[in-house]
Amino acid sequence: MDGKPTTIEEHPWQVALLINGNFCGGSVIAERWIVTAAHCLADEKDDVKVEVKVGATDYHDGVSFYAKSFFVHEEYNPDTCEHDVALVRVDSTQPAAIIPLATSSTQIAIGEGLTVSGWGNTLDVGESSDGGEPSDQLLKGTVPYVENETCNGPDSYAGGIFPGMMCAGSISGGTDACQGDSGGPLTKGNSPEDAILVGIVSTGDGCGKRLKYGVYTRVSSEREWILDKMSQFGN
C-alpha cells in the first residue's frame, strides 16, 4: 500500500501468479524458475493450475505461462512463517529478466532503502469496507531495512522474527506490502542492472501500521535450498 506507479521495465523479473482464484507475486531467478512464498502454494494440490503472467505493467496484459511443477519448502511453518519460500517451474522458457539471489555476503545497512513491488491491495483489508483494492498496474515502494532486534521489539513482533526472516518499513507505518503482494520481490539496488533479490514478501500485522514492519523471507538464508531444488529438477 501507498506505492507509486512503476513499469515492468524497472522490475523486469516481476511476475504475477494466479493460483486457484488467489493472487501472488514472484520473481524470475532462472529461465524456467520463479521464486515465491510458500504460503501461496502450501495448501494446493500438485495438479492445481498455476498461471504465471510475465512481461507487462498491467498484469492482465502479460504473457501467460503455466507451472509444470512447484515445490514448497519442506520446513515451512504456517504458524511462525519460517521458511516461507516456494519454487515454481514453468512449462517453457519465458522472456523475463533474471534477478540474482542475495548471498551470505550481501550487506544491507540499517535504514537502507529497499524496493518492494507488486499488484497487491492499495488499502489494508481492515481499513476498507470492500476488502481492499488490488492494483491492475504495477506499484513500487521504498521501505527502509530494519534489523531483526528492532523488529522483535515488544511493540512490534515480540520475538516472532527468526533468523531466516527480515523486516523493512518505517516506524510510523505507511508504505508497505499488502494482500496480493505475497511472494513478490524485495530488492536492493538503484537500477534493474544492479538489483539483487534480498527478500520475499511473507507476512505482517496488517499493512502500513505503526511499528508493524513488513516481514520478508530472507533470501540469503534460503539460497542453498533454492539452488539445490533447481539443480535437482533441472534449470
Automatic annotation (TrEMBL):
<protein>
    <submittedName>
        <fullName>Serine protease</fullName>
    </submittedName>
</protein>
<dbReference type="InterPro" id="IPR001254">
    <property type="entry name" value="Trypsin_dom"/>
</dbReference>
<keyword id="KW-1015">Disulfide bond</keyword>
<feature type="domain" description="Peptidase S1">
    <location>
        <begin position="1"/>
        <end position="231"/>
    </location>
</feature>
<dbReference type="InterPro" id="IPR009003">
    <property type="entry name" value="Peptidase_S1_PA"/>
</dbReference>
<dbReference type="InterPro" id="IPR001314">
    <property type="entry name" value="Peptidase_S1A"/>
</dbReference>
<dbReference type="GO" id="GO:0006508">
    <property type="term" value="P:proteolysis"/>
</dbReference>
<keyword id="KW-0720">Serine protease</keyword>
<keyword id="KW-0614">Plasmid</keyword>
<dbReference type="GO" id="GO:0004252">
    <property type="term" value="F:serine-type endopeptidase activity"/>
</dbReference>
<dbReference type="InterPro" id="IPR033116">
    <property type="entry name" value="TRYPSIN_SER"/>
</dbReference>
<keyword id="KW-0378">Hydrolase</keyword>
<dbReference type="InterPro" id="IPR018114">
    <property type="entry name" value="TRYPSIN_HIS"/>
</dbReference>
<keyword id="KW-0645">Protease</keyword>
<dbReference type="InterPro" id="IPR043504">
    <property type="entry name" value="Peptidase_S1_PA_chymotrypsin"/>
</dbReference>
<dbReference type="Pfam" id="PF00089">
    <property type="entry name" value="Trypsin"/>
</dbReference>
